[in-house]
UniProtKB/TrEMBL annotation:
Gene3D superfamilies reported for this sequence: Aspartate Aminotransferase, domain 1, Type I PLP-dependent aspartate aminotransferase-like (Major domain)
Short name of one Pfam family: Cys_Met_Meta_PP
Similarity comment: Belongs to the trans-sulfuration enzymes family.
Cofactor section: pyridoxal 5'-phosphate
Stretch list, region Disordered: 384-405
Coiled coil: none
Record protein name field: Trans-sulfuration enzyme family protein
Keywords: Pyridoxal phosphate
UniProt key word Cytoplasm: no
Species: Streptomyces andamanensis
The UniProt record lists the keyword Magnesium: no
Amino acid sequence: MDSARTPAYDDPRPAPRALATEAVHAGREDLARQGLHAPPIDLSTTYPSYDSRAEAARIDAFAADGAEFEGPPVYGRLGNPTVSRFETALARLEGTEAAVAFASGMAALSAVLLTRSALGLRHVVAVRPLYGCSDHLLTAGLLGSEVTWTDPAGIADALRPDTGLVMVESPANPTLAEVDLRAVAHACGSVPLLADNTFATPVLQRPAGQGARLVLHSATKYLGGHGDVMAGVVACDEELAGRLRQVRFATGGVLHPLAGYLLLRGLSTLPVRVRAASATAAELAARLAADPRIARVHYPRIGGAMVAFEVHGDPHEVIGRVRLITPAVSLGSVDTLIQHPASISHRIVDAEDRRGAGVSDRLLRMSVGLEDVDDLWADLDAALGDRQPQDRERPGARGLHPAVG
Ligand SMILES: *Cc1c(COP(=O)(O)O)cnc(C)c1O
């Protein structure tokens, strides 16, 4: 073959490409050379090798720095080629050196906390609201960490010598409150900032570029995108990734290869899904903001496919009346989901803490999918019930509250 015309197949870091291109090609660069189109699924739990001296050296290297295995892994808990394609692709989308996948978002967060406390850095500074179970994991100290809750302006003062992590979500679950990631990262000094980017996805926001050292996803949501895979992933630099791989190896929260395959497939449509659903969500947010049955609408400045709103009436009645929209927790699927955070996603958070974080008992959280906007509005309109006479008489100047703070 004429080498001058041979594409640079083996260049691990090709020139940066647009997000839409990376979404379709990252993690798949070797396929055409192998005569493949769809990525292979490697279900092996173990890998034969006639050279145990070489395996000893590879295991020693992993124990030293947690670097990803070159060649086939020795055992499934040390790594998997299909999962590693997803990790490569997600790292490219988030603009980080590496990504480490886990069995769920909570497994990913647990691994991060364990890497920090293993260094004796068990104190965490966090900003509410967070996803209900993340709040619970920190508040209950289930992994031996100790949390100080603060607002973004209080982060610098909350840091201690044993602070190992600062954690924020933006837009946050479920109020869609946004924090200025660049300012927060600055306030963290040398303490790593973890930004949960589940709601924004790298399509709308790349926190690593704003100073977050760890970018966490519940990949169960938009990355998978079809409500049929549970996963978590942390995008970060290679040094932190090495520690995360070592913890994953020792604690076992690995992602199944079939899930890795589905996630890689999900990533290829992530930009179009997020943009289409966001356009519909923005339109629904505007219609809700003009509706007298709605007390307040939360919709982030950066946009996105999540809308939260507080009703004047009984939120349980709305959940009971949807027909097209799916009354279910979770988010990021192709169909629209609605849930009542005070009853489900944030039930595990103490009621006073929950309300203090701005999660009203009348708040509903909606994950907008890919249905037609008028069909969704018709369902929502019916579910919201009668327009009360006294409301109809009020001037309709409720407006759309940007979800800040
Ligand atoms: C769902 C969610 C999580 C937890 O992820 P799982 O995959 O359910 O373990 C963490 N953070 C946010 C923002 C979430 O929405």
